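user: At home tonight, take the chain set out below, taking as long as you need, and be ready to discuss the fold:
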Amino acid sequence: MGQQLDGPDEQHRRPDGVSDATVAALGKLSEALECVERARGHLYSLHQLIGHADLMLGDAVEQFRAAGHQQLADRIDTELVGRNVIAGRWTFQIVEDFDDGYHALFRELDQRARDELVGGRRHLYEAEMKERRRSRGRPGHEARPASGS
């Protein structure tokens, strides 16, 4: 096992001259991006759930027809199966618009802010919080993995 060093690695240390306010602002931007990433996951869940529901509707239509409910089956089949969920769009189109627009711009601006202000470093706010909160010298409170881990 390699030697354990105390303190964050170079990529998680604040560059000289960077203020607390800058680290806090970058931390808030990162936190906002994390919320958007979670929302993106929910959007993909919507995409998959709606797609699955549409396939189940096809099964329901067949079952209504087999049960002798032709008129109801026809209405579901022509009005609901394959219907746009938002004007002109299926969920794959919503996901693509989100990914290519809002999400891509958010990620680009987050990266640009980190590149311009702290040399691309990530999670400085969290790394400094870890240093304030951990109990030095206690098992499970190491600053980073032992080298080679």
Summary: The two ends are 8 Å apart (CA to CA). The chain has a mean pLDDT of 94. DSSP finds four helices and no strands in the chain. Residues 20-66 form the longest helix (47 residues).
